[in-house]
Amino acid sequence: MERHVRSSWSLPAFATAVTFAFLVVSSLSPAESAQALASAPGPRPAALPAQGYTHTDEAAPGATRDDFAVSRIRTAPAAGVPDPGSAQAIAYDMLLARGWDDSQYECLVALWNRESHWNVYAHNTSSGAYGIPQALPGDKMASAGADWQTNPATQITWGLGYISGRYGTPCGAWEHSERKGWY
After folding, report:
1. pTM of the full predicted structure?
2. pLDDT tens digits, 59-83
3. Per-residue pLDDT tens over the stretch 101-133
4. What whole-number distance in Å separates Cα of residue 5 and Cα of residue 118?
5. How far apart are alpha carbons 140 and 162 in whole angstroms?
6. Closest CA to 121 of 91, 156, 150
7. What is the distance in angstroms between the CA of the first residue and the CA of the last residue of the chain?
8. What ranges do the domains of the chain cover?
9. Residue spans of beta strands (DSSP E) within 14-132
């Protein structure tokens, strides 16, 4: 059997090419990046509105966002466009049907990324929390459907109802989670 031997220059050449490509991409301004994306072949991702970042050491008197004091609370990172048929796409459609906007979707994605990584079977052995929204106990979700253990739509329906009733909006739940470490 013949063994392939790499030449002594191939690895350094590859590393140099990768480093150069990284530097070129990193040096693009946001406008240049947008222009490059617009000229790239293939489907275009839907644009999501930009979110600001508010950070203060102490909340200013009366400063609120969704009725929560602004104090070291990060806004949720941009979520992007969900893959069709995914749990995130199901949640996005349900969220829009409730009249919430893309900023609420970004908060929901960040919240449930933290809780379960959108895993329908996620189970916290120490607390007993279950599913995408990490319902505690998990069988609470049976109120949304008998298939609560396996169906992301059932879990999302229950989770959005819980968030709406307890925090008003996904951003309200996200902000509570940022402050307390749970929602």
Report:
1. 0.59
2. 444 444 444 444 445 677 777 777 7
3. 999 999 999 999 999 999 999 999 999 999 999
4. 44
5. 10
6. 150
7. 60
8. 10-39, 64-180
9. 64-65, 68-69
